[in-house]
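Dear colleagues,

As part of the handover before I leave the project, I'm documenting each prediction I ran so the next person doesn't have to rerun anything. This entry is a single chain, and its sequence is reproduced below.
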Amino acid sequence: MSHFSEHLIMEGFGYSFGLAVADLTGDDSLDITAADADGRALYWFQNDGQGHFTRHHIQRDHPKERLERHAIGDINGNGHLDVVCVENLTGDLYWFENNGTPQDGQLWTLHEITVGGLPFAYDVDLADFTGNGRRDVAASGWKGNEIAIFENPGGNGLWTKHPLDDKMAEARTIRVADFTDNGRPDILATGADVPLVAWYEHPGQLGDPWRKHIIDADTPRPSHGHPVDLTGNGQVEVVMACGQNSAGGCVIWY
């Protein structure tokens, strides 16, 4: 049996609802990003390769108070991993640009994807939905009951919003996976208030209608989950945490 030891990276968070892992420096060690909404900050923790971490700021003293869930990926195609983050209360999406030397003590440059365009923005994931080699952004808005894709324009152009669903009551999880094994990125989503776990099938062209497939419409309050091959058969399963703010909490897989 494996045994795990606890290692404290940082304490004193006020409201931390966002965490991701990636090699941000290119040294083959996994670093960690974390949001501190009450602290109006977004951090990254540099791994020295031995599991010792140094804190750096991606953003500090942010003028709005709810930087939360985020995803990591190369947004501008320069080979450096950037961070895309939601601002929950005002419905914003930002991407923070990694200049290639993120440990230099400088804040990362903030770029706006949308300001107020996704009410109560909640979760986010990245994929190339158009096939043009650029990473686009899939996101949910929990009070707006909305799931949408924001198309990466390349350069400094405006991001185009493509609504997928505006009736997913209390939309929470957004994750990308290829459920059909056709090479196109599909979307896993949950509506905690419906309740509903569903996946949306990529139609081939981003602007065409996405077909919704129901996974579960019975288990109370599905909130956070991930697509993953749990059985080793090459097919995508889903593991899901359900029962948020209710007595029926559970973890299940499909």
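The mean pLDDT is 96. The chain has no helices and 19 strands.

All the best with the project,
I.
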